[in-house]
Amino acid sequence: xxxxxxxxxxxxxxxxxxxxxxxxxxxxxxxxxxxxxxxxxxxxxxxxxxxxxxxxxxxxxxxxxxxxxxxxxxxxxxxxxxxxxxxxxxxxxxxxxxxxxxxxxxxxxxxxxxxxxxxxxxxxxxxxxxxxxxxxxxxxxxxxxxxxxxxxxxxxxxxxxxxxxxxxxxxxxxxxxxxxxxxxxxxxxxxxxxxxxxxxxxxxxxxxxxxxxxxxxxxxxxxxxxxxxxxxxxxxxxxxxxxxxxxxxxxxxxxxxxxxxxxxxxxxxxxxxxx
Length: 275
Fold this sequence. Notes:
mainly alpha, 14 helices
């Protein structure tokens, strides 16, 4: 029995190690390539560490015609507006669907949730026509308005967590005179911090990496987000992979930092979901 247990653990950790290598390897390759000169990348094997290490690719991104400060600023503004808008709207909608009683509540929820079955690419043309007709093409608001008022996934996730809360807590607060909004912001939200932190991270990653919609609705350079600006580098400088990998590494770094900050909350939310 001990031998079987040892062998099972060996297989498990071998599989986990192989999976971790497969996931981490592309990111390590991106960083290594970003720290090489074009000559080193062309003459050395791809997996050879950079020697010497150079930061000229990162410097080039912020000088000359590239000016990556603009895509970073635009992307940060888009993500901030998206996070505030989606979190605020999703919390309110999920709380209403979970605790408030009104005619057609469940039917409305399932109709709204069914929009998850619609591929995002299907809605691009209608959204493009709408934004163009109201004169918002190539503007900041065209980037954020279609997606800032909640999402079906976020509302579904929060609704299920709100419904799992003990009803006695909310009933006691109601007897003490707490109104709907007070119960929401002082009881429901603090009790669901792990899932809210996870949802915040998902929202940031989704819109930080968004490419298709910004590419379609805001093709002008002054409204390029990081993904579109990186794509333009690859199109214009298809042979200069060190510059492209530097831009990719630059776009990846904030997401890694954000994950490390919220790692504890994400782990807790996964643990709650498995119970």
